[in-house]
Amino acid sequence: MDRYDVLIVGGGPAGSSCARRLVQQGLSVAVLDKARFPRDKVCAGWVTPAVMETLEVDLADYGRTRTLQPITGFLSGAIGGVPVRTDYGRTVSYGIRRCEFDQYLLQRAGAELRLGERFESMERGDGAWIVNGRTAASLVVGAGGHFCPVARELGARLGSSESVVAAKEIEFPMDAAQRRSCRVEPQVPELYFCKDLMGYGWCFRKGDYLNIGLGREDNHKLSERLQAFCAYLAGRGRIPADIPARFHGHAYLLYGHAPREVVGDAVLLVGDAAGLAYPQSGEGIRPAVESGLLAADTIVAAAGDFRRERLASYREELVRRFGAGGAGAADRLPVGLRTFLAGRLLTNRWFTRHVVLDRWFLHRSQPALALRP
Ligand SMILES: Cc1cc2nc3c(=O)[nH]c(=O)nc-3n(C[C@H](O)[C@H](O)[C@H](O)COP(=O)(O)OP(=O)(O)OC[C@H]3O[C@@H](n4cnc5c(N)ncnc54)[C@H](O)[C@@H]3O)c2cc1C
Questions:
Q1: Atom of ligand 1 at shortest distance to CA of 144?
Q2: Which of 18, 51, 109, 363 could staple 292 via S-S, CB 3.0–4.6 A?
Q3: What pLDDT, in 10s, does the model give residues 240-286?
Q4: SS (HEC) of the chain
Q5: Global pTM?
């Protein structure tokens, strides 16, 4: 039987970040993922510079052979309205493609990779977890995204009572005619909010790729809303008329909206498995990476004693980093009032720059995660 200090289920940004930090600290680590990499992930692929800094990504090296789209401004407003343009005059974010980004992070993590292997089971045996009946690990990290099977082991009721964000998107390479007719500027992604502020659509050009999507806090009529959004974009001449019809869907949790247990005996959850995406923007890569690193430091500090109480400090680290969670003030407002306010505020340049973009989307007040050396 193979034996590792830590087995990580899921090789996305949460799993690979956790794996890299553990390997750097001298632990033996395996990452198990049902997919073979490079694999795609439904995602707009927008990352803030703090993520690149925390991950120690050499941007010049990364961008040499992969898509790395600098973002210097945004076009934003309400669906159906007239958007506002905000320019920063410098790079405030990047666009990446998840098939490239996740592969890059996983390959450099230095862990043993068990790709193409689905998690089936974990049982206690011989002072360790026995995963899939053939791999022993002192501790298991659940990094399998929203539907992570390890989260189920900790009691999460996947796909049932949890209140999720439901999203649909496409990402496709534009042909020459589509590139000519697409008026979205690569360095200025476009964000359009639903009038009830329950979600937003985006349109994001990364080099020759176009990514269009819509996410909402309810699943109600998502496809119809998406169609209406695309018709609005096409009507304003932003996107080519002949975009592919087949959008891909996914769901995930916003931090504090449906808390999951994240710590068990010799088990931790990170990233989407723990339900950590930022509530206002749905950005999940940064919390995935940061939680992966915080989990790794908790594991190292526990020094082989992985009882639940020894790992409980991880939960406190998450609260210290992301706050206590819970519904924000906007969530408590009646829909009619929210609609009224959205109509006013989303056309206001000050509100758009300082609240919507700086605070909700760029998290400019939250510096990159500082880790113990
Ligand atoms: C439409 C959409 C757009 C988004 N846009 C953005 C964005 O622009 N920026 C941003 O920061 N966030 C965005 N997010 C959120 C972001 O994609 C996630 O928060 C992020 O991918 C979480 O990373 P993770 O490592 O926790 O999980 P994932 O990236 O989902 O990785 C989980 C891994 O676990 C593996 N796995 C799952 N089940 C099993 C199993 N049974 N056995 C073995 N392996 C398994 C999967 O194959 C996968 O590789 C978006 C999400 C959606 C749905």
A1: 34
A2: 18
A3: 999 998 999 988 888 887 788 999 999 999 999 999 999 888 899 99
A4: CEEEEEEEECCCHHHHHHHHHHHHCCCCEEEEECCCCCCCCCCCCEECHHHHHHHCCCHHHHHHHCCCEEECEEEEEECCCCCEEEECCCCCEEECCHHHHHHHHHHHCCCEEEECCCCCCEEEECCEEEECCCEEEEEEEECCCCCCHHHHHCCCCCCCCCCCEEEEEEEEECCHHHHHHCCCCCCCCEEEECCCCCEEEEEEEECCEEEEEEEECCCCCHHHHHHHHHHHHHHCCCCCCCCCCCCEEEEECECCCCCCCCEECCEEECHHHHCCECCCCCCCHHHHHHHHHHHHHHHHHHCCCCCHHHHCHHHHHHHHHHCCCCCCHHHHCCHHHHHHHHHHHCCCHHHHHHHHHHHHHCCCCCCCCCCCC
A5: 0.95
